[in-house]
Amino acid sequence: MASLTDLALGLVTLSLFPRLPRDVEGARYWRVAFAWAGVTALVGALYHGFLVGRPQVGEVTWAVMSTMVVLVMSFLLAATVVQVLGRGRALVFWPLRLVGVAAYAVLAATGHPGIAAMMLCEGLTMACVIGLWVWAWLRRHPSGRPMLVAIGVSIAGALLRLVPGAATLLRLDPDSAYHMGQIVGMVLLFRAVAHSRPRPLVGRDPSLA
């Protein structure tokens, strides 16, 4: 079931990728994030279906897959910064990403990849993404609320995997419940991006937003 739900997540995400608009700020980053997320889910389907019982191969696959998730987070942050603040401010956030990616790469290379390590390295990144969209929402950015809803659904999906017994409410194992939550989250994220406007907030009168 975990393999099938991960396969469904990958196929849904990749089906949304070519439909993402090209005329919004950060479009390139959004598209790369969706592409990487879709491929990561397909690798996850392979892992859950065929490699989880093979320790050596499975561990390497998990390390690669989790590192791909970290890269997805990098592009999500880049897209958020560009769309909310503008291209000129994106460089400010790249040092933060390099620290997070480097830290997780070290953990993965030393045999400590996993959800806990990922959350440790990516917690600040996710906080930045949420904080920027909260700020955008307060300034009446039309994508602010939809983005926060999509992020909230994705976080809820992650909690189904992390909180003991939460997935049983859906009569699913934790991995499958997580994947189902991420499918809904990716669809909502696509809708938020698709309805974005092609202008950043910085320098604009919030009453005109």
TrEMBL record:
InterPro entries, per the entry: DUF6962
UniProt entry tagged with the keyword RNA-binding: no
Transmembrane spans: 29-50, 62-84, 91-109, 115-136, 148-170
Protein name, UniProt field: DUF6962 family protein
Coiled-coil ranges (or none): none
Keyword annotations of the record: Membrane, Transmembrane, Transmembrane helix
